[in-house]
Amino acid sequence: MSSLHDMSVRLIFFIFLCGNFNYANGRLQKISVKGTVLCKGRPYTNASIKLMEKDGLDADDELGKKETDKNGKFELDGEEDEFLSIEPYLRIRHTCVEDKTCGGTVDVPIPEENVDGKPFEPTLQLDRLDYTTSDCRNLKFAPHG
């Protein structure tokens, strides 16, 4: 009977260790975004903005969400405890451009240097995206101006 008890205790301890591996060995990484969304040169209000973090094996993590204000502006902060470097991105839902390829949702990668560093401060011109690609997760913005 005691060997079954010992085995149960070891199994519970092993599960506890596995479940806390990322927390115990990871590091808290922070990201801050302060941006403006434009459509045809004008502030785009009520665009849904989500700060996301890409995960390889399971669903991506949502670190924060907000809608753009009357000036097309938004601010989001988030943090994630990960063993490896996080891969944050912005997910934007909009109706600025009739876009059958991406269905009004685009993902904008956040540069690695903005993790635990200076805030990512983009001006995102939704009508200046290259929608000819089928890769809606890595659409490129034309330079603002």
Automatic annotation (TrEMBL):
<keyword id="KW-0732">Signal</keyword>
<dbReference type="Pfam" id="PF01060">
    <property type="entry name" value="TTR-52"/>
</dbReference>
<comment type="similarity">
    <text>Belongs to the nematode transthyretin-like family.</text>
</comment>
<dbReference type="GO" id="GO:0009986">
    <property type="term" value="C:cell surface"/>
</dbReference>
<dbReference type="InterPro" id="IPR038479">
    <property type="entry name" value="Transthyretin-like_sf"/>
</dbReference>
<protein>
    <recommendedName>
        <fullName>Transthyretin-like protein 46</fullName>
    </recommendedName>
</protein>
<dbReference type="GO" id="GO:0005576">
    <property type="term" value="C:extracellular region"/>
</dbReference>
<keyword id="KW-0964">Secreted</keyword>
<dbReference type="InterPro" id="IPR001534">
    <property type="entry name" value="Transthyretin-like"/>
</dbReference>
